[in-house]
Amino acid sequence: xxxxxxxxxxxxxxxxxxxxxxxxxxxxxxxxxxxxxxxxxxxxxxxxxxxxxxxxxxxxxxxxxxxxxxxxxxxxxxxxxxxxxxxxxxxxxxxxxxxxxxxxxxxxxxxxxxxxxxxxxxxxxxxxxxxxxxxxxxxxxxxxxxxxxxxxxxxxxxxxxxxxxxxxxxxxxxxxxxxxxxxxxxxxxxxxxxxxxxxxxxxxxxxxxxxxxx
Length: 214
Fold this sequence. Notes:
Helix content is about 70%, strand content about 5%. It is an all-alpha fold.
C-alpha cells in the first residue's frame, strides 16, 4: 500500500514523481522572499508596496498572504535572516584562531561577499537602518554582536580604550549599510572593494588611535 501525499506532479524520465506539500510550501515562501527583497533593496521599505510585490510575482495574492500577512512581516523575516547570518559569521570567526581585529575584518569581508550575491541578505541588512521600518533595534543588535569582537580586541591588548575604538562597531556597521546603499544608487551594484575600504578605514583609525600604552 502506497502513502498518498499532497503533491505537485512532474515528469521525470517517464515517471510521475511527487513533491511533498511542505517542500513546495518552503519553495513558495522563498520565492516570495526573493521578490520582496528585490523591491526593498531597490526602493526601500516605504517604496516597496505589497501591491507591487504581488504584481511582480507569478503567485496568487492568496498564496502570498498565506505566508506573509503584510510587507512588515516579510521585512521582519529578512532582518531576522540578516541577524542570523551575522551571528553565524561571528561565531565562525571566533573559532578560527585569529586575532579579534582580524576576526572583525574577516566577518565584515564575508558579510560583504554574501550581500553581493544574496539579495535577501542585502535587503535585510539595509532594512536594519531603514527609517521607514522599525525603531533601529535590529541595527543596535547587529552593532552589539559586532562589539563583542571589539571588546575581545581590547581585552587582548590589540587596541586600547579610546573614543574611536568605542565607536568602532557602530562605525563599521553603519559604514557597511551606507556603502551598500550608495553603491546601489543609479542602478549600480554593491562593490565589495568599496565596502572593504570603508571597513578598513574605520579599523585602521581605531588601531591608530592607540599608542600602545596602558
